[in-house]
Input
Amino acid sequence: MAALRKTFRINKKDFIHAGEASISVKNLLKSLHVDTKLIRCVSVCGYEGEMNVVMHGGEGILSVEIDREKVILEISDDGPGIENIDLAMQEGFSTATEEQREMGFGAGMGLPNMKRNSDHMTVESEKEKGTQIRMSFSMADEKGE
Amino acid sequence: MIVKELAEQLELKVLAGEEGLDREIKGGYCGDLLSEVMAKAPEGCVWLTVQGHQNIMAVAVLRDMSAVILVGGHSPDEDTKQKADKEGIPILLWPGSAFDLAGRIYAGLA
Ligand SMILES: Nc1ncnc2c1ncn2[C@@H]1O[C@H](COP(=O)(O)OP(=O)(O)O)[C@@H](O)[C@H]1O
Ligand SMILES: [Mg+2]
Output
């Protein structure tokens, strides 16, 4: 299978369509008969990354690349960036607003869950420039859950 | 057990997503923090929550849930119902506590 790449837009503050990019990725992986466990890991990471763009980021893009060995998920946005990445990666750290917390967001588990459910994850961010997250998932081994 | 049977047995009101009433229930999960539910809810579960906003449906879809049950008298937003219809995942209502309902469902599945 040659590498297949698809790209989806994530719109800033768009809670109405939030989650749709991840659902599209899930359906794509399903149609390619990717292992169910791997799909679940990619779904967790896609959803958390997508929600972060909508809640904390700016205009964003989610792209997925699939080949025989792996799935690569890249989520980037041009928002305010993450000031302290090490702190943001800690379980429970969140800058979510009171209103977002009432909706069940802001548990500070998004980035840690992305780390846990991917085989490799890199986070790059610059203040006022934006954030890029890249995660890879190996078709071979089992992860997360 | 399928969702329809559960709804009938416990007199849960079906508000949306009727197309999914024949989904098989393989388990359950209680939670109101979306990240936690996203990380831990098992496939084919019924999800008991107080959250009625539309973003719950993406979680339900991505987790392959069989139904969402709003407990404690909470009700879904209009957009949430539309998404449930589109995705074919039922939304049911239970006026009592999550604890009460979870106990009954657990007993029924065991
Ligand atoms: N794309 C992003 N742009 C700016 N800040 C972000 C982004 N993603 C994450 N963050 C920051 O990292 C924190 C932790 O993220 P996360 O672990 O997903 O928890 P939560 O979303 O529940 O706050 C967020 O509260 C926010 O401050
Ligand atoms: Mg988050």
User: Anything to note?
Assistant: Residues A 48, 52-53, 55-57, 77, 79-82, 88, 93-96, 105-111, 131; B 35 surround adenosine-5'-diphosphate (ligand 1) (CB under 6 Å). Chain B has one domain: 3-109.
